[in-house]
Amino acid sequence: MKYINTLPRHKYPWLTTLYSMILDMKPKTIIEYGTEHGGTAITMGIALKELFETEQHKGVVYTYDTFETQSKGEIGSCPNYSMAINNVAKFGLQDYIKVSRGDFFEFCGRSNKEFDLLYFDIDNDGDKVLEMYEGCKTNIEQGSIVIFEGGSVTRDNVPWMIDKNKTKINDVNVPFKVLTPEQKYSCSIIYNPAIYNLDI
């Protein structure tokens, strides 16, 4: 992990895990929803940069957010498009990360989605994870992998989930595995075990 010490500062303690997973999975097309300031996109972009330098593997992160507006069910701040672009440029990752405006729910409803890896973080709750799974189930069955923020019991019981009566992620019928079990800011994965024998 050549660039492990250059990862952005972030509230998520598992960015090194995400970085390592990109190095192992070697995805070509990564779709991210929930760019915010670019922290997770930059982490994945750094991994793709390392893969290109060491193996000539070509991959791109296409990261989307609604930016100055909010989408269905979002409860956080509205991130700034220019800030995300500038943060990507500070890391010199313009060849590996493409920032655009886009809506997660429109993406889930498409019939022609193509991606190797989907990462999403849009104030996740059980309803959003279920909508993603129903919209991306065919992709997952065919070998696409999904990683998302949330999934731990601790994360399901954070104050905003309780106060806003959000559906808990653990209460929906989606076959995810939690990578960071007891953390507030947790991370989970969905994949087809008939295709991947992941030691998780």
What does this structure look like?
The radius of gyration is 16 Å and the shape is globular. The chain is built from seven helices and seven strands, in the order H-E-H-E-H-E-H-E-H-E-H-H-E-E. It has 200 residues and is an alpha/beta fold.
Radius of gyration (CA) equals 16 Å
Query: In what order do the strands lie side by side in the largest sheet?
Result: 3-2-1-4-5-7-6
Elements, N to C (H/E): HEHEHEHEHEHHEE
The number of E-state strands comes to 7
* Helix run count: 7
Q: What's the assembly state of these chains? A: single chain
**Contiguous runs where pLDDT drops below 50 for at least 5 residues:** none
Gross morphology is globular
Question: CA-to-CA gap between the ends?
Answer: 19 Å
Structural category is alpha/beta
Major sheet size, sense and barrel closure: 7 strands, mixed
Which band does the percent of strand residues land in?
Answer: 15-25%
Mean pLDDT: 92
Helix proportion range: 25-40%
